[in-house]
Amino acid sequence: MNNSPQSPLASPGPALLAQMYRRMAVTRHIERLMARHVREHKFSGWWHPGEGQEAAGIGATAAMAVDDYLWYQGRGCSWAIGKGMAAEPILADLLGKVTGSTRGKGAGVPHWSDRSIGVMGEGATLGSVYPLAAGSALASKIRRDGRVSLADFGDGTAARGTFHETMVHAAAWKLPLVYFCENNAYLVGTKLRDVSPTENIADYAAGYHIPGVVVDGQDAVAVYEAVTTAFARARAGEGPTLIEAKVFRRQGHYAGDPQQYRDIEAELKHYRDPLDVLGARLEDGQAAQLYAEAETEVQQAYAAAQAAAEPDASVLYQDLYHGQ
Amino acid sequence: MANDMQNIGYNAAMSQALVEEMRRDDSIFVLGQGVATGGWFSTEKGLAAEFGADRVLDTNISEAFQAGVVAGAAIAGMKPVINMGFGDFALIAGDEIFHKLAKWRYMHGDSFPMTAVVIFPIGAMGGAGPEHSGCSEVLSMHYPGLKVVVPATAADAKGLMRAALREPNPVIFHSSQALGWTKGPVPVDDEYIVPIGKANIARAGSGATVITYGSMLPRCLQVAERLAGEGIDLEVIDLRTLVPLDWPTVLASVRRTHRALVVHEAVRTAGAGAEIAARIQEEAFYDLEAPVLRVGALDVPLPQHAALEAMCLPSVDGIAAEARKLMSL
């Protein structure tokens, strides 16, 4: 079941820590690339930067087996990279090329899919992730295949009806489902504290009689450990867990957002870069080496994506129906 | 009746196909409100007893959850079936049906087989009121990626349900509330199938083509019998599938009869008939001897009062009058 370099029930060992750091560094280089890309108007889609929040996706996916189902709905690309996707299809999707994981279709905003490693795709109507993830969790329960489904979402969609409709059933049926909230304190530009009755999204868990866990979302290892515990519980047939990672949104809601709704300078005084937090757990010099390797990988992937073909009109009816 | 046929109800015929397919394919499961207790219209009668709680799941009253679970399970390779009770409830689960079920594969550039059957019973049932009597089939037609069937006979209810359960695309299955308890001859054969996308010429004729589906088929056939006595020979086409619509059958008939009348229970404005009439005039304009006419329900929410409701729906008299008008043009 577990394809990680380290047993998920233990803390991550050196090999897994290095893999996590390497993948986080890849996402950071893609962030830098996309920021430049948007400034130079080379990008036709919408980019929602994930910088600062990478420990959530990297830590959580490191605790998942390759065939566990990931339904992400987060910023940046740390979820897809963390689950094992390479930089090239990610970048090719962002550039709208046929070598992207969506073959130029681009999914929602745009986004990525690779069902062979459990990256199930992403919808662009925020908050739509919950019942979809419950669907694969229910499939696993019926098939008894031992897989767990994870629904990643932001604090802003915890108010959605489907959050609660789905949790009612997941808890009642003890589905192998983990809710993973990235709470970055902002819903686009609205402060969560202005529209939420609770400080913690995890508090909602009490209403469903399931564990609610708050974790340091800047620390990938803390996230890994929380998700590992939740997955073990889900695999044992004990039902869902609601994990809330407190994360820091380093950039605006979208690339170019002037962020007039926040005092970013004041907030940055409390910022801990998740790369630094994870890098401190590595051996001396290892972080710098992995960071440089990741940069080379992203540059090569970017060159390949730029050289790839644009989709033409022949794809317009492709995939509308099976076999078409 | 031959011993390879049985006289059973329309909903029972749907259920029969479902049971037979669940026996041969354990990836099929059913969920919905009340399905474990047999379903509110007996469509799921006996399922829970035979297949158990793992494959026949009662849910809360939570349409968005139900439809979203169907989409997620189908993407994960299961073949979910949901009975949402009423077509009007499609709007409560709009994101899950029209974005996720319809678009997921397309927007991810993936064409994997994805079976999901969403049963949306449509139409009036004698006073169910404005939020339980609507015909929502045009919504499903307007979101590419879904297939849409509307059986009008018990045999088609069985054959189309089997086709939907073997279809590698999501199917919106609009059963007719008005026809749910009507009985008809249904093949006993547990391989009996009605292919999706094929219309049926329910009555051959030469004077004009009546194009209909679902609950209006029996009324159109009555009209044809009545007008035959007046020397008007109507051909009645039962579409059976709205997506993909069997245009070759429709257009060939219209080219023979030179006149067309579209009849459906849905409100007239922007109903399926608008698309059908437009397409006929685009493709067969020079074969027509009269404008394509349409009969649908009045453009009002269907009143709760059964007598008022009946005034809104296409009647045999109303359809006959429109057919006579078509012949006089």
C-alpha end-to-end distance of chain A: 34 Å
Helix content of chain A: 40-55%
Q: What fold name stands as the CATH topology of chain A?
A: Rossmann fold
CATH-scheme architecture of chain A: 3-Layer(aba) Sandwich
Discrete helix count of chain B: 11
In one word, what is the shape of chain A? globular
- The total domain count of chain A is 1
CATH class of the largest domain in chain B: Alpha Beta
Q: Could you tell me the radius of gyration of chain A in angstroms? A: 19 Å
Instruction: Give the spatial strand order of the biggest sheet of chain B.
Output: 3-2-4-5-7-6-12
* CATH fold descriptor of the largest domain in chain B: Rossmann fold
**Total beta-strand segments of chain B:** 14
Strand order of the largest sheet of chain A: 1-2-3-7-6
Task: Assess the beta-strand content of chain A as a share of residues.
Answer: 5-15%
| Percent helix of chain B | 25-40%
Oligomerization: heterodimer
What do these coordinates show?
The complex is a heterodimer of chains A (324) and B (329). Chain A is of the alpha/beta class and 324 residues long. Chain A has one domain: Rossmann fold, CATH 3.40.50. Chain A has eleven helices and seven strands. Chain A has helices at residues 14-39, 54-62, 78-83, 87-94, 129-143, 161-173, 192-195, 220-235, 264-268, 274-279, 286-307, and strands spanning 69-71, 149-154, 177-183, 186-187, 190-191, 212-216, 241-246. In chain A, strands 1-2-3-7-6 form a five-stranded parallel β-sheet, with helices on both faces. A two-stranded antiparallel ribbon of chain A has the order 4-5. In chain A, helix 1 (14-39) runs antiparallel to helix 2, helix 1 (14-39) packs across helix 11 (286-307) and helix 2 (54-62) crosses helix 8 (220-235). Chain A is globular. In chain A, 51% of the residues are buried. Mean pLDDT of chain A is 93; it is low at 1-8. Chain B contains eleven helices and 14 strands. Chain B has helices spanning 10-24, 47-51, 63-75, 94-107, 137-141, 154-165, 216-228, 247-257, 272-284, 306-312, 316-328; strands at residues 5-9, 28-32, 56-58, 79-83, 116-119, 147-149, 170-173, 183-187, 200-203, 208-212, 234-238, 241-243, 260-267, 293-297. In chain B, helix 1 runs parallel beside helix 6 (154-165) and helix 7 (216-228) packs across helix 11. The radius of gyration of chain B is 19 Å and the shape is globular. Classes of the chains: A alpha/beta (324), B alpha/beta (329). At the A-B interface, helix 5 and helix 6 of A face helix 3 and helix 4 of B.
